[in-house]
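Our consortium's second objective concerns turning raw sequence data into structural hypotheses that experimental partners can test. To show how far this objective has progressed, the report includes one record in full. It was chosen at random from the queue rather than selected for favorable results. The single chain below, 552 residues long, was entered without modification.
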Amino acid sequence: MSTVDSVSTDILIIGGGPSGLATAIHVADLLKQKGLTRRVLLIEKGSAIGNHIISGAVIKADVFKELLPDVDPSEIPLDSKVSKDSTLLLSKNGSIKLPFHPPYMSNTGNYTASLGEVCRFLAKKAEEKGVEIYPGFSVSELLYENDKLIGAKTIDTGVDHHGNPEANFQPGTRIEAKLIIFAEGVRGSLAKKLIRKFDLQKERNPQVYSLGCKELWSVPEGNIQAGEIYHTMGYPLNLHEFGGGFVYGLSGNRVAVGLVVGLDYPDPTFDTHDAFQVWKTTPFVSKILKGGRLLEYGAKTLPEGGLYSLPKLYADHALIVGDSAGFLAMPALKGVHLAIKSGMLAAETALFAFEKNDFSEDTLKQYETLVNTSWIYKELYPVRNFRQGFAQGMIAGAFHFGGQLITGGAGFFGKLEAHKDSEATRKLSEFQGKKFKERFRDRLDFDKMLTFDKATDVYYTGVNHDEQQVPHLHINNPATYDAINIKEYGAPCQFYCSAEVYELHTDKSGHQELRIHAENCLHCKTCDIKEPGDGITWNVPNGGNGPEYKYM
């Protein structure tokens, strides 16, 4: 039996996205300025930095001047400066360009980009500053001593589906740290455990989410210009579904297209991937994609609850940054700059803690103070009620948003409450209205030229998972799941999953069972968020497993 390896570090950063890398870069700079030597170690579950990163993305680039003041801005791999920015209202057969930008949605001065490319660049800068970066390692367990967080442990490998050791068994490595930064992205599995253990969501709204599906296309010259961007509202979503589409022109005759849908919809059969395919058939979108070819596909969730859904951002020896905390501004749908800034403020807090040699809550609460006195707070505060206002549909949401614009974000009713997205899903017998496939029965026959079934799209993600490991998708209570989630809700996971991970199989006798194709999983965490009764838990798979995004 192999022995457990153990390493120690001063700072452990879990996650190699923009918030984790910004933390690493800024803390390295601050330590150097103070003449302090500390070990900074960053662990990333993807096989390489950027491989699990997906975003629209249109980025507010000024934040890079704060993070990298000595770097020539031309070095940063942003794609194109926004040159044209329009919002359209779509119908099945047409579109209307709005004569104005909806509030907070102007993109003047912003840049289109591949966030994966940006993260690869940031990783190089971090390593140049002495940060140790280890991709391909999944961190699956938090370590405690006397109920105080002391570190984390990477996943055991070389086990079968039941967790039994095989000949190549290798126990995970214990990593002990004075300070742990949780930068895992949306619905981080360890951040979720930390928040629950220390009740960090107490007296805060629960987080609410959207799911976005995105494709990257190569299109004929002239179909769209680099820097030309569009956001769409309306079709194919109805008044009970929150969301919209995006079209971002990139260099090299490429275009990023996607549909983002709030996960608080009631229809248990709603399918965001398929709605995205329907969206592409509209005259406006299909004209841009005409003659083109699909390059990549991906899916991710977005935390949209805003200021009122941020958890307590610290615990003893722990800080939460970026999407793991929920730093995203609505309705602008911008989070990259907030993630980077939150990482920088976490780095400043880390320096403060090292100077005091104290990593308790009393010291680390400085992080929340810094957030609340920064431009992060100034950006989130005026829209603090935005997403909650749409919980009862688009008409009610428009009313609430109008009131918020008049009152500086307060609205007519003060702080609005939010509910978990899983609670919004209706049982089949309770749902009123046409189910998804009834609404789009004439548009769900995908031609594999403009529109694609899930299996075909998944091929364009490069996704791969080791066959021998404990399945990372877990049905929490199989008996309850069969009786309630399948019988009463119709197994909504078979629809909301955008990678065909979940299959409801019916045998000749009529017995139904859920089959899980974990090898398709894109790590979007929708199942962990949307499944009624918290019926499914998403865990990290082996390190290096998952999608292999190139320019997403």
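The partners drew two points from this record. The chain has 17 helices and 24 strands. The longest strand covers residues 293-303. Both points have been shared with the crystallography group to help prioritize constructs.
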